[in-house]
Amino acid sequence: MGKHVLLIEDEPNIIEAIRFILSREGWRVDTHSDGTTAYDRVTAVRPDIVILDVMLPGRSGFDILRDIRADTGLNGLPVLMLTAKGQVKDREMAERMGASRFMAKPFSNTEVLASVRELTGA
Amino acid sequence: MGRAPPFLAREGYRRRRLADMARLLPLVGLALFLMPALDARDGLSAPMLIYLFGAWAGLITVSAILARRLCRSGAMDDSDGPQAEGP
Amino acid sequence: MIPFDVLVAICLLYVALLFGVAFLAERRAAMGLGGWLRSPAIYTLSLSVYCTAWTFYGAVGYAARSGLEFVTIYLGPTLVFIGWWWTLRKLVRIGRTQRITSIADLISSRYGKSNALGVVVTLIAVVGTTPYIALQLQSVTLSFAVFAPGGAVPWAIRDLNSSALTVAAGLAVFTILFGTRNLDANERHHGVVTAIAVEAVVKLVALLAVGIFVVWGIGGGVTATLDRIETSPLAGMPIQPGRWIGLTFLSAAAILTLPRMFQVLVVENEDERHLATASWAFPAYLMLMSLFVVPIAVVGLAEMPPGANPDLFVLTLPLAHGQDGLATLAFLGGFSSATSMVIVAAIALSTMVSNHIVMPVFLKLTATGATMSGDVRKIVLRARRVSIGGVLLLGYLYYRLSGGSEALAAIGLISFAGVAQFLPALLGGILWRGATRAGAITGLTLGFAVWAYTLFLPSFGQGGVMGAALLAEGPWGIGWLRPQGLFGMDGLDPLVHAMVFSMGANVLGFVTVSLASFPNPMERLQAAQFVNVFDHSAPGQGWSQGRAEAEDLLLMAQRILGPDEAQGLFQRAAADQGKQGFLPDITPEFLQRLERELAGSVGAATAHAMVSQIVGRSAVSVEDLMKVADETAQMMEYSSQLEAKSEELARTARQLREANEKLTELSVQKDAFLSQISHELRTPMTSIRAFSEILMAGDGMGPGEMRNYSRIIHEESLRLTRLLDDLLDLSVLENGQVSLNAQEVALPDLIDRALAATVGLQGGLAIRRDPAAERVRLMTDGDRLSQVFINLISNAHKYCDASAPELTIRVREGRDGVAVDFVDNGSGIPEKSQAIIFEKFSRLSDHRKAGGAGLGLAICREIMARLGGSIVYLPGQGGAAFRVSLPRARAQAA
């Protein structure tokens, strides 16, 4: 089992933070910051876990999640969703659409790491 | 609704004058028929008879011509177009 | 001499022929095959009911006794007909539009549908017509008697009576059969009219035949006959000017007012155009009927034995010369004259009696009102049939009572003078709006009373109804009240005397009382319709009369809609037509509009009936409509109170709903705004938290990384601060709490300041300016305005995607103020986004370049609004272009 993460996020500083946290623990981190091409990147990269921001330029994280869940080839792919809006209805929406976990920004670094580990069973 | 224009078409003008003549005719007739009363003393005579029936026939003829023209000019159908002024 | 039995047989055959004609005409009409039945010729011929047996036989007798005077009886009608444009045309139009059934109906309708007037007119008509019918019966029986076995030996009275009764009964049967087939006056009596037209031809042909026979057969040609006239005892018989004028007037009046004439002239009229033909054809008919009267009289006086009745010369002259065929034709002519008059008179009188006396009494007795429908028809028809029988019976009784006296001969003129009493009410009614019901009743009653006192009652002869003493010395010996010499005017001819006094009293009473009394609304409505009948059927003419009608409509509308709404409606309509006041022109559009408004209150059918009643052509009683209007007004008042309440409720509910919607909308906006703010705050917070945790853990980091991460934390803190500043700024601006510090500033200074503030950001952005154009001084808050400039310049810096980015600052002074344009050479803003760029958080591209929360332009817009100017996006400038406009009031030339 590889330790491969695809991070879909558009804030450069947040990308840097997550990349630092995960790579230090031995994860390979790919990043992608555009919403419209994110799904293609997922199918191309085939990561062990996707960390997905909701507010992305071009396309909403929810739409990307829907595509991932509709793709049988990506069955069982854990998706960790991050959002800065932090509203209850966003959380409900994410769970209904099949997000493996939902975390509000700002998050705790240990929590992110623990979640990634837990979701990948690593 | 627009009032009738001050200068109607020629037709309308003719129609109104025809109506005027139609109104005038009985007055002429009255004058003619009252003549015998003015000349009362002469009484019944052949010339008087001829005058009376001649005047009568003349009135009838003029009236016939007028009536025909009035009808043809459309003065009778007042459903369309301006109506000749009522009495 | 033709055998009496043969004559009776011919007479019966002729009657059968008339029945057949009437029957066929009815059937054709029923099958819709009008054709020649509705021709002007038939109409003209039917008018010949004016020429009764009194004309056919009596004219010759009249001429034999009084010379030329007989001709006045035909001159009057001639004048009326050639003057048809004055009166007849209007009368016929009114009759058609108002569905008039008789002269009583016309007069009662005109004066507010007054039944009292209907009764008065009917009674006068019956009294005036009954002797006339008796006269016809007498002439028929007399003409029969001429052919009776024994020749000169007069019939026994018994025979005369029985033949008169037979004739009366036969006429009753004919009239009932063909005169009461239909109820509505608008369904005309085709059978009767056609039969009368046939009779008209017969009598004209008969009289002309006799005349031609007399002139050429006996007299020896025209010249010889004229010579005979010159030498006859009639020659030089003087004309009495008073009688001549009076009789011309009387006959002119009679042609309008005789019930039977009104029947054929107005009620049976099919088409107004027929009147145009009749206007000359009927006078021609009258002239032909009188053409040979004098020759026949002159020849008769010369040829017939002294003492022979000149009234029967038409019959006895051919007989004396052995012309049996001609005599028979003459007999049929006389028969036709008598019967046609009786038939039409009976129809006219029966209509009046049943409509104005029997039906009102019946309705009052049954006390059910006119609410039933089917039964009334039957009752009316029965009433009419009984009335016809009654009228003929009256005529017969009069004939029997008067004993066939010589007095009957004068009855024609007496009858004329009687019905002439209708003239003032009739003419006044159609020509003068001021004529009132009270005036009409007064005039009619006075005129009728004077007529009866001075002419009718004395006509029965001394010792008849009035004693000799009364006639000679006046009532109670008061000389100036003598019936034939009122106020001592005994030099006058009795007929002229009666005419002058009766018409004088009539007109005086009519006019005086009309002027003194005030008409009720119904009378005024009817008056407007009658007098202005041509305007009503041809709108758009005669504005003053149209105004009167508009007033009537307003009157009506007020009763239904209430004064305020009705007046408002009329005022608006008038304003739409470009008029001032409350009375618009009566146009079809306006009528439709009014009808619709009324329909909202009383229903479409009633509204239509009401409007068309005032505008013309409807048979619904205005009184009924007025009642409906009053009741409706009461109902409306009640329901409008309810309506007002429910309207108030609805209004409150609507306000609540609106308020709720606004709140919901605000709440949605607030949620979206909070959500946006949350996102904008959480994003830098996330970085700050993540990197501070990394730094706190402190393991496995080089000093370069440590420095870098500290810098990120610092930057994100600044970003947070900026965001909070912007939010506060926007909030202050939006709430209008900002205090502006207006002072005179120079535009170039402001731009310089803005460029200086953004110099750190500018990088490769080239700035193009035109210092000459910039030289404008402004009265404004310089700090706020430069804040806007800074925002625009930094946006250009951030978003201009050209390889060699440029920003052009153009200043233009216009009439309304100063415009400062900021145009870059990038790709600009897509059209679909141009509308939203001034909204909060409307950042278009990704965050890295922006470095703000997307509040900049929103703040600019608020600032410019506070400064009294505006900021807009200028499309089509080749790049992103914004125009900042300041009003003239705050911009002054430097």
Looking at this protein, list some descriptive labels.
heterotrimer; A: 122 residues; alpha/beta; Rossmann fold; 5-stranded parallel β-sheet; B: 87 residues; mainly alpha; 66% helix; disordered C terminus
Summarize the structure.
Chain B is an all-alpha fold and 87 residues long.
How would you describe this structure to a colleague?
The complex is a heterotrimer of chains A (122), B (87) and C (894). Chain A contains five helices and five strands; from the N terminus they run E-H-E-H-E-H-E-H-E-H. Chain A has 122 residues and is of the alpha/beta class. The longest helix of chain A is centred in the N-terminal third of the chain and has 13 residues, at 12-24. In chain A, helix 1 (12-24) links the parallel strand 1 and strand 2. Chain B has one domain (12-73). Chain B is built from two helices and no strands. Chain B has helices spanning 10-38, 46-73. Chain B starts with 9 loop residues before the first helix and ends in a 14-residue tail after the last helix. Helix content of chain C is 68%, strand content 5%. With 894 residues, chain C is mainly alpha-helical. The N and C termini of chain C lie far apart (134 Å). The chains are: A alpha/beta (122), B mainly alpha (87), C mainly alpha (894). At the B-C interface, helix 1 and helix 2 of B face helix 5, helix 11, helix 12, helix 14 and helix 25 of C. Chain B: Keywords: Membrane, Transmembrane, Transmembrane helix.
